[in-house]
Amino acid sequence: VLFGDSFVDTSVQQPYISLEERGLQFGDGIYEVVRLYSGVFHLLEPHLVRLYRSMEEIELKPTFSKAQLVRWLYELVEQNQFRGDGMIYLQISRGVQPRNHIYDPQNVPTLYAYIVGKERPLSSMQQGIKACSEQDIRWLRCDIKSLNLLPNVMARTSAERKGCTEALFVRNGIVTEGSHSNFFLVKNGALYTHPATHLILNGIVRQYVLSLAHTLEIPVHEEMFGLRDVLQADECFFTATTSEVMPMVQLDGTAIGTGVPGPITYALQEAFSEGVK
Ligand code: PDD
Q1: So which residues are the signal peptide here (predicted)?
Q2: Which residue out of 34, 170, 181 has the highest number of ligand 1 atoms within 8 Å of its CB and is therefore the one to mutate?
Q3: pTM for the complete prediction?
Q4: Is the ipTM of this complex over 0.90?
């Protein structure tokens, strides 16, 4: 079961998308990925806050209220009788309009969402993953969760061809984030991550991990750092809705710290898991 206002063709029970849908032609839209554990939403509210912020930043005006959207999301879970671990992909684009670079701010947006099962990545969280550095060639509004993911897609594919699970973006010598995750390093017991500027997406799990660190009394520095700092770090990890707290144990073939996930990463994983039960 999916939902979307204008666009489920009830005669065939198939969703359809118009040829002149701006999300398709221009990537003119935004999205969210929300996690469910045992059929229960995880961190839904901050995802909605970010969704509305993304819409506002691109002048996309929803034709539905936030309360309506929340009702649809719960209906999606109920109609699918979804009780497992999974995720909802939710996309809102500018809608249908004769192809033109100029958008009409009054255009009716297209909304759709669907739910899929997704297990927690427990074994990679235990073992850690390898990452490869890639040039961050994205635009200067990475804070918007835009549909334009071509640089992310290319970087991750390039990293995968070099035997890596994630790409670590570097812009002008500064490590920004992963291709689909945020990035943290641990040095001398303190946590470092790129500040939430227009150069990164302020991840929901990033924000959550910062709050967990606060509770665990782990010092946090939202500061810029370079690749050398990463290679000299004691521990490193990525965070994302689908990856949780994912240790990075190797970068470009060089082991990080002892080459296995470290104690602070582990403590944050534990604290995260506590919130999932
Ligand atoms: N990606 N940075 C980028 C570029 C991302 O695409 C994501 C999420 C994150 C982490 O954000 P969050 O903690 O809110 O998931 C950071 C999603 C999961 C995706 O595109 O699949």
Answers
A1: none
A2: 181
A3: 0.95
A4: yes
